[in-house]
Amino acid sequence: MEIKVLENILGANEQIARKNRELLDKNKVFCINMMASPGAGKTSFVLQTIKALKGKLKIGVIEGDISSSIDAETVAKEGVPVVQINTGGECHLEAIQVQTALNSLPLADIDLLFIENVGNLVCPAEFNLGEHIKVIIASVPEGDDKPYKYPLMFNIMNVLVLNKTDLLPYVKFNVDNFVKTIKNINAGAEIFKVSCTTGDGISEWTKWLKSRIK
After folding, report:
1. Could you name the CATH architecture of 2-213?
2. How many whole angstroms separate alpha carbon 133 and alpha carbon 149?
């Protein structure tokens, strides 16, 4: 019975996700579902991307959190449209929540939309939101074993961003083994090594992103 209920929930979510995708495509908005563990640097990465693309692309953000609007308020200071979704305890965003948020955004004036999902490497992997690509942010302090512990998340992603590379001299993290593991799990994934503190690697990411949007 529980399996049947889960199938119904995921099926309903897929239907709404398709409608979200249709709406995004109609308005020519490229959408990224950003996922990561808490503290990996999702908001910092979004901010760095906004700053790097200012004047080149019009960007919007949907912020997902269990509670508070701290990240949304931080992003809004960059002058981009932001909608906050508080899940009230749920560990992921669902398509219906994103559908409501999309109706509150000026989609005709947005080229690129970030959906910052709730910090979690389990539940968000199960729920499509209507996005065009899924981006996972991993960070050096988390360790290089995350792909083994959360294989589904790393299997469904399109892009892996390794953040906080400025900490590599101080943390035990084998970059070569990490990249090799990622490629074994998901051979087609794009990989970017960045530091949101120093700005290293951001230009490579934004150059690739612009090419995808075009």
Report:
1. 3-Layer(aba) Sandwich (3.40)
2. 22
